[in-house]
Amino acid sequence: MKTSITFTLNDREVTVDTLPMARLLDVLREDLRVTGTKEGCGEGECGACTVLVDGHPVNSCLVPAIQLQGARVQTVEGLAQDDRLHPIQEAFLKHGGAQCGICTPGFLVAAAELLAREPHPSRAQVREALAGNLCRCTGYQKIVDAVVEALA
Fold it and tell me: What band does 139 get if pLDDT is binned at 50, 70 and 90?
């Protein structure tokens, strides 16, 4: 039986009728057509589906929709403001931090959260903050470079 869930998505209140145990990832992509968040493994191991829920990074493939009631959700689409890319998005472009693009939204969201709480992170802090995000296409150096220099 479907239930009505209201939450804030990228600074806009939304209401969706969905199954309570539907995954946040599916609610975003299928019900709300917000498709920047990608599914990598579907098991919470790769971080491709990382979004922020109440300011904390989560694997959206593991979060049941019922937990969204009243929550604030931010996806990669919510990083840019007023047609201006977020500094981490600019840095990824500058440093070539994106490869195939499947993992990129998760890295961007996790990095933006890190930069919000630690504006000048060390390389070690960046690596720790992004440890839950896997990329099959890169050696991570360009991604770390982008995060370190994003707000420098």
Answer: confident
The fold of 87-149 is DNA polymerase; domain 1 (1.10.150)
In this structure, what token pair is assigned to residue 147? 């995060």
Residue 101: its pLDDT value, please? 87
- CATH code for 3-78? 3.10.20.30
Confirm whether pTM is higher than 0.70.
yes
Task: Round to whole Å and give the CA distance between 74 and 54.
Answer: 8
Our measurement of the distance from residue 72's CA atom to the centroid of its chain's CA atoms, rounded to an integer in Å, reads 13
For tokens 């209140």, name the residue.
13
